[in-house]
Amino acid sequence: MKLSKPLIAALIAVVAIVIVVAWIILAYNGMVSSEQAVEAQWAQVENQYQRKIDLIPTLVDVTSGYMEFESGVLQNITDLRTQWLQDLTLEDRVNTSNALDGQLMLLVATYENYPSLSSIEAVASLMDELAGTENRIAVERLKYNEEVQTYNTKIKKFPSNIIAGMFDFDERPYYDPIPGGP
Amino acid sequence: MRFAGAFIIFVAFVVAASSAPAYGQDIPEVYLYANDFVGVLTYDEIATLDEICYELDQYNSDELAIVIVNNTYPLGIDIYAFRVFDENGIGKEDKDNGVLILISTEEALWRIEVGYGLEGVLNDAKVGAIGRENLEPYLAVGDYYPGIFYTVSALISELTTEPTEDGGGGLQIYPGIVIDWWQLGLAVAVFVAAAVATKGRALIWIGNVLTRGKFGGGSSGGGGARGRF
Asked: Which of A57, A132, A151, B7 could make an S-S bridge to B124, C-beta 3.0–4.6 Å?
């Protein structure tokens, strides 16, 4: 049996279409899983913020028992926590969180200035917890930005950017703790 | 001419597909278990720490890494510790049961980073207390080995208080070299036989035999504590 020229052309066309469709499906699924990874990592960042907020009542409770910690700072921390819980938008929460970090840094500075405080086990433990929470936020934020980088690279690279345009995959912003900072 | 065009497009694709992000700071590759990049520990001290950590690994598969560096610029000790932990995969992959003891000599800083899977047993406060009680007093006067030894012992006693799945009830530490001479002899005999049979090609394997082991692929979420000495 000999294949006619039109039949060969048709076969080539069918194969080409199958390859293109398969590639579209693969590229699309790759972008979806990458987008999911970004979302999941953001949830991790929020979990760690929540952990910090949850730590504050105990922190204020214990540190208020020692003269060295200024009551004004502790009051600010309590107020900012309340405000954080009331904030609805992400931007508000980031701003409140930055203000809160400033006050917590004053608390840590006080702790470091009075070596006698580090011999009090309850205070030392809380400072470890606070530092650990801050570090977890930093690490999860780092991982989030890496996921965003992977995702953004994927949707901007040729030729997968064609698929990204077809299905409305938008670029994601990096998480920047200090707006306008490095 | 048409071939040349296709070739150029092919090269462009290969180049586009191979670009990868790079970090400014070199993160050292570390091996099971003690890694001294400064030279404050003797060969025997490293061997003893390796032996103790190996026993723990055999006992309940927890992986302890000890890393001593000159400094952690420009990342800072927290992010540096996370990077070392993450890129070397300390702890088993499915358990994330690794612990990293990082000491930066020039900055006089220490950090103990705890993998996700051990955050329950080793919470930040407990790790902070272990570092303050065991590392700081010795490191402050330049006695690195006792500080690290007592820290490792304290961590191991926390990690082995609960019985393992197969009913083990506490780890015995024997700092010393344990070699099964019968097994060693058999291994050498097999190796020599293989070298003869392959007319020397098996000698290439010796490189692989002498390479130190890598960690199991665990990850960390930034748990642990740090301090100054």
From this structure: A132
